[in-house]
Design brief:
Number of domains: 1
CATH class: Alpha Beta
Strand content: 15-25%
Helix content: 25-40%
CATH superfamily: Vaccinia Virus protein VP39
Order of helices and strands: HHHHEHEHEEHEHHEHEHE
Number of strands: 8
Length: 274
């Protein structure tokens, strides 16, 4: 993929999620009242989040406006966060997963959210102030070039964001850089179950809608291994087709994409262990 195409994709994604942040809209990809939306009809955000595996307690524990219903799973369910850990959320949006992670790691832990959309970072910082999250900070940056120091993170979480990157190898390589030895990835994302046809792959709206940028499981495994990760485990969730179908009604996208959990570990002793 050419650099000009990469930049075009990033601009489209940034514009889409900037609109969501500024309009207080919610949904898988774009405000439901825009022509570019792949979420018609829109599903109530709380219902979406429950479908993704979040509890009612999760939903009630974060500031209003933090959950925009933009995910495709619940990375908290596989992250196994413990008090004192440093957590990095790739594509942190309005802060929903970051705030849940902050609750899990406690006052002795730290959560860093990184997002490339200025309006989302502004929204997340306002939500953090409203909720009194002293151990959470949000940084503007691209997930391919993280504004995070080497070997400083215990756990990386992400929810339906890496598929939006046109350079996923760079994402995994930089994730490896910032993790401490023994650190781990706990990601929910969309993966391709079959090769995407050109009509889907070349649609920028579907790229911003978490469909066209999905990679095959075998390709993701190869990218993670090339970055240096071990104990790679990618588990597709066929039940996710029920909500993914709503992202692009009538386009048959569930023939090609499905949500999955992605786990991997950077070699070395478990942080804080030895």
């Amino acid at each position: 993929m050419s650099q000009s195409t990469n930049d075009e994709i990033r601009a489209a994604v940034r514009d889409t999620y900037g609109q969501i942040a500024l309009s207080d809209a919610a949904g898988c990809c774009a405000p439901a009242d825009t022509e570019s939306s792949c979420c018609a009809p829109a599903t109530p955000v709380q219902l979406v989040s429950v479908q993704l595996g979040y509890s009612e307690q999760d939903l009630s524990s974060v500031p209003e406006g933090a959950d925009l219903g933009l995910g495709c799973g619940n990375p908290q369910a596989i992250a196994a966060l413990v008090p004192g850990e440093t957590v990095l959320d790739l594509g942190s949006g309005a802060g929903f997963d970051a705030f849940l992670a902050a609750r899990a790691v406690g006052d002795t832990g730290t959560v860093i959210g990184v997002d490339m959309t200025p309006a989302m970072v502004t929204k997340a910082r306002a939500n953090a102030e409203t909720g009194g999250y002293a151990n959470v900070e949000f940084r503007l940056g691209e997930i391919e070039h993280l504004p995070v120091a080497d070997s400083t993170v215990d756990v990386i979480i992400s929810n339906c964001v890496i598929n939006l990157s046109p350079d996923k190898q760079a994402v995994f390589t930089d994730a490896y850089r910032v993790l401490r030895p023994g650190g781990r990835l706990a990601i929910s994302d969309v993966v391709a179950s079959a090769d995407l046809p050109d009509g889907i792959k070349d649609d920028l709206t579907l790229y911003s809608g978490c469909v066209a940028g999905a990679s095959l499981v075998t390709d993701l495994q190869a990218m993670l291994a090339a970055a240096g990760f071990e104990r790679i485990r990618i588990q597709p969730k066929d039940e996710s087709k029920s909500f993914i179908e709503q992202w692009a009604p009538g386009r048959g996208v569930t023939d090609y994409v499905v949500s999955a959990t992605i786990e991997a570990v950077k070699p070395g002793p478990t942080p804080g262990c030895c």
